[in-house]
Amino acid sequence: MRTTSSRLLRVALVxxxxxxxxxxxxxxxxxxxxxxxxxxxxxxxxxRCAEAIAPLQESLRYAEGVGTLLNxxxxxxxxxxxxxxxxxxxxxxxxxxxxxxxxxxxxxxxxRAVEKDVSTLLVHVPVSIKASAxxxxxxxxxxxxxxxxxxxxxAGVHEIELIAPKQPKQIESITVKPRxxxxxxxxxxxxxxxxxxxxxxxASLAPSPRAPGEDDVGSTQRTLxxxxxxxxxxxxxxxxxxxxxxxxxxxxxVGRCPTYPRCNVADKxxxxxxxxxxxxxxxxxxxxxxxxxxxxxxxxxxxxxxxxRALR
Length: 312
Description:
Number of strands: 7
């Protein structure tokens, strides 16, 4: 009994010290997301979209909200960054669809409205160096699935860098015009003549089909998860207490009669009562700890599988 109770106690304490703090951290992240969203939205409403973008983007690191994405898209569109606005609206549509949020139609309409103004960049890389070349645009990697494809990009000046073995590094600036214009850039090979390239069909700007969205149980499911986790921890603690009581009673019993139940003492009935109390407490301890751990696990599942809270 001592070994089993000790092991269960250790498991209960480990889970209590890991799962419950994780739930608390997740809730704190969501609160931080709301604070950053409110800050960004206020800046946007004050006409300070350039300043609003940073807190809105930071908010998305903590929780992906439809409202945050819509406000971010609004600011990008205001600043003439049509490609970034289009991406934000498409993502808002996806999140709203997943959470069964009625704003998915608004996000879809906004994405369609700005799509015509999205400019693209078409980068040609010679076949002879494609396998080993690395391409960067504005210091960020430009993946191979974007090569030889008109890819959405914000209007403005962009720096293109191409690195390939046994080839000089190429760094050039290119200006992408607004309102749906296309800019093209081709890598140059010394003394190799015109580059041979294969142009793929234009990349679709429309969102890909999505599976039906799940019901938005949102904060209700998170609340149930926290309640279940709290009750579970309480049950595990109560079970631990009864385990200590059981061990104490058993220790007293052994101290008075090491060979129990073979005892030749006058108050054997008192020893029987002590043994019964130890067994009862041990049973309660085992049930309490096991039930507590199950509730903590169920609470964690409820909390972490809840749809993201919609930020308005």
